[in-house]
Amino acid sequence: MPRKVDAVIIGAGVIGAATAYELARKGYRTLNIDKLPASGYGPTSASCAIVRAHYSSWDGVAMAYEGFSYWKDWEQYIGVVDDAGTAKYMNCGTLLLESATGHHEKVLKHYDDIGVEYEEWDTAKLKERMPIFDTHAFWPPRRPEDPRFWDGSEQELPGAIFTPGSGYVNDPQLATHNLQRAAEAKGGEFLFRATVGEIRRANGHVTGVTLTDGKEIEAPIVINVAGPHSFVVNRMAGAEEGMKVKTRALRHEVHHVPSPPDFDFEADGLHTSDGDTGIYFRPESGNHILIGSEDPDCDRRQWVDDPDDYDRHVTEAQWNAQVYRLARRIPSLPIPNERKGVVDLYDCSDDWIPIYDKSDVGGFYMAIGTSGNQFKNAPVVGHVMAELIDRVEHGHDHDEDPVKVTCRYTGLELDTGFYSRLREINPNSSFSVNG
Ligand SMILES: Cc1cc2nc3c(=O)[nH]c(=O)nc-3n(C[C@H](O)[C@H](O)[C@H](O)COP(=O)(O)OP(=O)(O)OC[C@H]3O[C@@H](n4cnc5c(N)ncnc54)[C@H](O)[C@@H]3O)c2cc1C
Fold first, then answer.
1. pLDDT at 2
2. Burial annotation 59-96 (CB, 10 A radius, 16+ → b, else e)
3. Could you tell me the distance, in angstroms and rounded to a whole number, from the CA of residue 76 to the centre of ligand 1?
4. Atom of ligand 1 at shortest range from CA of 282
5. 329: which of 80, 134, 314, 405 lies 20 to 30 Å off by Cα?
6. Residue 132 C-alpha to ligand 1 middle, in angstroms?
């Protein structure tokens, strides 16, 4: 007899595990299936795990702001002791540098509407708090191959927006393991080293999955949380054609460098979103700095057709681009000879806004298109997906009347229609990792 559960969740990354926990809390018997050996081993493990609220839309800011509270309350939220330890929220604060991207203008309006705590810093305050920063404006971002890359600038940045509630999670894989343990305590199960090869259907409804080793699992609900493999899984389910917004995989490098030795970046550094040079960076243990790209126009985007086959090495060209951009902002940055970092994939949607939705196939749901910016939201997404699935399974017509979810901590109301697979491309998006 094949094994039978209420819901199969394809993927055990941070969002897959959070969805399991929230569904299990509602009494669903869940089974996460992941081809990797443990939870959070895929792109989640490469995440910078930055927790910040500066999204382009009201909905993006509201969800991220709700997320702050989960991370601050992590131990209570998880509600179990994990022998592997508990992930820590490093509440260092975020600096959003004001730049010609204009992103800060969109963001401030939403901060005011929603009540996100923030301070506006002028350049003098920025210099006082971050004396290692060069506060000149270097716009537009360029690549180091460009002869104008090191050109001087007479113009100062207009200032920065500081949000004290932001930060990062010290160990994204451990946070996922914490969610796994929390789900298991509510009856959820996890199956590792197992690949879903087929999604079985009958009469327009899912009936279960078949693994590549031939094993069958019966389930009336199947949820795609497969990260950069999301489009592969949607095709397996016959769900992709009915979607207006689609997903694909984008290669991304994050680099790891030491901080200037005379500044304790680990203790006093701030997560910084620097649209002026096209990078973001945050403190990392051992007085290091992690650097990611904000995907400026001058960088060619590296779309990947096969998420199982791409170059996982840090490249000299992208290392130079990201590390030298940081050296513009922090001129005393020591540039190491050895290139250290991680390479992984974003699961990008067409407008860099996720898809948290049902599909045209009965019982098939998706939490995908996380576009390099949804680690922070994982527990909120778990809550949203569990509410959405539960309402739809009880007969609610979500496409006609999108499910609204009241946030646990902030009381804000999230309209899940914002994340619909049937939406028009959102023109207000930053079309970058900023969402
Ligand atoms: C380099 C990098 C930096 C990032 N930085 C940040 C950040 O600072 N802040 C932030 O908020 N977000 C960040 N993100 C984004 C964030 O990490 C992701 O949005 C989040 O981890 C997605 O989690 P997930 O559970 O959806 O999927 P994933 O972690 O992608 O997991 C998907 C899982 O599905 C499994 N799978 C796929 N297909 C199958 C199959 N057929 N059968 C079985 N298993 C399957 C895979 O093995 C994988 O483990 C970053 C992402 C990357 C790559």
1. 85
2. bbbbbbbbbbbbbbebeebbebebeeebbbbbebbbbb
3. 24
4. 8
5. 314
6. 33
